[in-house]
Design brief:
Aspartate Aminotransferase, domain 2, 2 domains, about 40% helix, seven-stranded mixed sheet
């Protein structure tokens, strides 16, 4: 066999692949595993959306290639209306919206559309691995921006060296944040837009969790900032909004230049999502309500936070995402503590170091727990941790 591409040597094994392997081993051994690992909604897609898919799939005009410019027109128009309703921002359906086969695909392809060898990519640390991995695969250099609890897990843009900023093409942000659960306000986005305008950088904001919010909190869009559409593109996904991870449907919105560049690349590597899925997503954007799932996630959050605090942690309730970012006990690495959770309590969590060196000292616990009806599996996880003596 020929040698593989050298670009593959630039990336580590996919984090979730390793987690899946450990999970499979535990299940094969017959263990009752409480899986707080991957953030994949455990509730079904709302039935009305499934019905819309069935109806669209029966329409013969969805059975052939989608030859539209940027995505099924029904989907594009629904996104424009949804964005105006959610964020008060009017988008051009002709130039500022692009249908994606899941936001992960769009994020990865954006790196390939902009980055060359010698460019810099500004990546938060810790962060969703796609930003760093695809920057490296595209040949760029990565400048890590540390996220710390003291700064609310927001990057300090003023600390980016000016020579690196001048050579940067992409600034990656992700709020509400995976893995930390942190949120960003408009003031932070205003600062980020000023930074990108000063250095001619494209701001890529991954807003996949913007609708996974609690306690009355509403996450802002970077596109609400004046002038943001000159320098920013934002990614939204139906995966987390409506329990549609397996459907692979999302959108990029914002800078017409970025949308055009991303569309040019995608036009050469994919043929768009099945139009029936796009039209079911359009129905969801206009009609669906996923409040029952969000209420269940909120209850699970409260059970987990209250339980962990009863063990000696001092955690605030995150206002968004599916995640609890848990500091490890003193002297224990994230991998060592995750292993103890798995081996001594039958609880699966993700080591924070898998999201970057600055994730060391944490594990990420997800609130999407298969088999849980009302927080009882979460409560059981806390009981197991108590019995195993796992506390700060």
């Amino acid at each position: 066999m020929p040698a593989r591409s050298t670009r593959l040597n630039a990336i580590p094994p996919y984090l979730f692949g390793e987690i899946a392997r450990l999970k499979a081993e535990a299940l094969q051994a017959g263990r009752d595993l409480i899986d707080l690992g991957i953030g994949d909604p455990d509730q079904p897609t709302p039935s009305a959306i499934v019905g819309a898919l069935a109806e669209a799939a029966r329409s013969s005009d969805t059975h052939r290639y989608d030859e539209s410019h940027a995505g099924d027109p029904v989907f594009i128009e629904a996104v424009v209306r949804w964005f105006a309703r959610e964020f008060g921002v009017s988008l051009s359906p002709q130039t500022e919206v692009l249908q994606l086969i899941g936001s992960k695909e769009g994020l990865a392809h954006l790196a390939w559309a902009y980055l060359d060898a010698g460019d810099w990519s500004l990546v938060p640390d810790p962060a969703y691995t796609v930003y760093r991995v695809n920057s490296l695969m595209a040949g760029a250099s990565v400048h890590s921006m540390p996220l710390s609890s003291d700064a609310g897990f927001l990057p300090d843009l003023s600390s980016v060296p000016s020579d690196i900023a001048r050579g940067a093409k992409l600034l990656w942000l992700n709020y509400p944040n995976n893995p930390t659960g942190a949120t960003a306000d408009i003031a932070f986005y205003e600062e980020a837009v000023r930074f990108c305008r000063e250095y001619d950088i494209l701001l890529a904001n991954d807003a996949a969790y913007a609708q996974v919010t609690f306690d009355g909190y509403r996450a802002p869009s970077v596109l609400q900032v004046r002038g943001a559409r000159d320098v920013a593109v934002e990614f939204h996904s139906f995966s987390k909004m409506f329990n549609m991870t397996g459907w692979r449907i999302a959108m990029a919105v914002g800078s017409a230049d970025a949308i055009s560049a991303l569309n040019k690349l995608k036009s050469n590597v994919d043929s768009k999502q099945f139009a029936a899925i796009a039209r079911a997503a359009a129905f969801a954007a206009a009609n669906a309500d996923n409040a029952p799932t969000l209420e269940l996630i909120r209850r699970r959050r409260d059970v987990l936070i209250d339980g962990l605090n009863s063990l000696g942690w001092s955690l605030a309730r995150p206002r968004a995402t599916f995640y609890v970012w848990l500091p490890t006990p003193a002297g224990q690495s994230s991998i060592a503590f995750a292993r103890r959770l798995l081996e001594e309590a039958g609880v699966l969590a993700i080591p924070g170091v898998g999201y970057g060196p600055n994730g060391e000292g944490y594990v990420r616990m997800s609130l999407t727990v298969s088999g849980d009806r009302n927080g009882e599996r979460i409560a059981e996880a806390v009981v197991r941790m108590r019995k195993a003596g796992l506390h700060p």
